[in-house]
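Exercise 7.
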Amino acid sequence: MDPHITTLAERPELAGALNGMPDTWPEFVLEDIVGWANFPRIAVEFPQYVLVATDPEGTVVARAYSVPFELDAPGRGALPVGGWDRMLLWAFSDLRRGRTPDTVGAIEITVATGHQGKGLSGRMLAALRDNARRLGYGEVVAPVRPSGKHLRPALPMEEYARLTRPEDGLPEDPWLRVHARAGGTVDSVATVSMTVSGSLAQWREWTGLPFDADGPVEVPGALVPVHCALDHGYAVYTEPNVWVRHRL
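Solution. The predicted structure, written as C-alpha cells, is:
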C-alpha cells in the first residue's frame, strides 16, 4: 500500500477521522493530565504540523502530530527531563507569548489498528522530518516511547536505550531502530516524560488489575512499574522516554 500523506492544514475535513482512528494505546496513558488538556489543541492551533495518511479508499491509516517550540529560549537549551509533557507545555506557552520557534517536536506517530507491520511508522517519521524541513526547521526532536520496553519494565530506561544488536549495531528496540535508520541519534533519557496519577479505583478501572498491595505493580503496556500506595489510596505512573535528535 502506498499511502497518501498530507498535512491536516491541507485536508481539514479529515480532523474527525484522524481523531477517531482506532489505535492500541493503553487506556491509562490517555489519562496524563498535560496531554488531556493540550493534545486536542494541536490539530486546532498547529494543523500544518499534523500529518495524516490515507489508503486508496480514503481511510485514515496513520497519523503524526508535532509541535513547534523554542528550544534555545532562556532557561532551556537542553532537552528536558520532563520530555513529552514539558515539550507540549513549551509549545503552547511559546504560542501564547509570541516566541519564534526553532525546533519541531514529535508528539505522536501512530498507525491504525490492523495496519501495523507495513512500514507505515517509518514513512510517517520520514514525512514528519520532510514537513519540518519544508517549514524551515533544522532539527526534529522526539521523546520516543520504545515499543519493546513494556516487555522489560524492571530494566532502567538508561540501560534499555543503549542496547544494540550485535549484527549491525542498531538499537535493539524496534521503534528506536526506525529512528536510527532515519538518521536520528539518542541524546538522553527523559526520566519524567509523562505522569499519570489516579485513585486505586481509577487504576483498577483502567487496567483491570486489583491494586491491592503496596509497591511496584507491573501493568501491561507500561514501560516501568506503577507505584501503588495502598494506605493512601492512590497509584502513580512516571514514564521515561528516550530523547532522539534528527538533524535535517
